[in-house]
Description:
mainly alpha
Amino acid sequence: VWASLAFNEFWGFMGGYFSLVEGVVNLAVFPTVTLDYLLVLFRTELDPVTAWFGKALISVFVVALNMQGVNFVGRSSYLLSILINLPLGVMIILALFYVKDYSPWLDSRQNDYDTNWTFFLGILVFNLSGYDNVGSVAGQVKKPGVTMPKAMIVAIIVGSVSFLVPLMFGAVIDTNYDNWRAGHFAVAGEIVGGRLLFYVLVVAAAMSRITHFMAELCTNAFFLQGMADERMVPPVFGWKHPSTRAPWVSIAANFAVVVAMVTLSLPEIFEFSNFFTISGVVLGLATTIKLRITHPDVPRPYAIPVGTTGLILFFFPCFFLSVYVICCLSIFTASVCTGVVISGILAHYALNEARLVGWSGMQGTVEEVELFGVKSFSDKQEEAPQHRSDV
């Protein structure tokens, strides 16, 4: 919406397209990593075909959970987050009795290893992406202007602590960092808590990925549903189940892309995701600066408290690092991503043309869409006069 206001409808569509593709590509990471964690429990490997069916089965399970609605996803994620962090708390308590030397916290071993800064920046971009996804479910939140800033602050604090503190203790439990590989955190837990804690940590890691998968699928599905509300894509993608209020068609569309993407390797998925993350970020930076110039009087309750020149200088490091990461992509990734961008451009003009010539798939509103003999749930149904408390 903001990109459309700053530039035109084309850039509004492309902004949504970048975010949508980035979100769908991100989703492909979770079934792959979840299956890897589960295979650790059974100490086995799967052939590519069996592994694909395993990832597809995990995806079907998460899709079924998302079809229960955003309230179910939110409450389930809250409960699972508590259960996931309990084993970490146990490991930290046991580490207090096991660890005698905390000096590694103060040691710098940077010179002992060849740091791959390009890979580091790529992973950093991937891990910091998705912060804006919460905006796609703002319509499901009462008083989002008050609730969401508080929730994001709490989430940043809790998320940072739950990453940093266990990692600090893991680093002093096993100080031979050459042994650290993906999944080694559970090995550190085994050192202080035995085989039982190892298995519990592996299961907690798998639950963590499923929780993340569930939350990200939810936000991505509502993002596509929002594009349907804005008539950027066919209204059928905005159809919501009348009882669960979940956008079933959008969820199914995300699922279809995920089961195709899981055939790629994790490094390839990271690179694809980073390309579209950075594309969306750069467009967002340009949009913010343009609106400061063309629409200075638009209400900005969370505005960065600097002028336009200060804003450009503030954004410059982010812009520079973004361009650097893009320039470091492999030729294969850059070629495929360019093709996907061209497909988005063609889709924009094709959908516009379809709307102009009266194609039935682009006519009407989301509320008029009927599937399985049932019309979509409409938020307008809740706008009828009600004596509802604001407390």
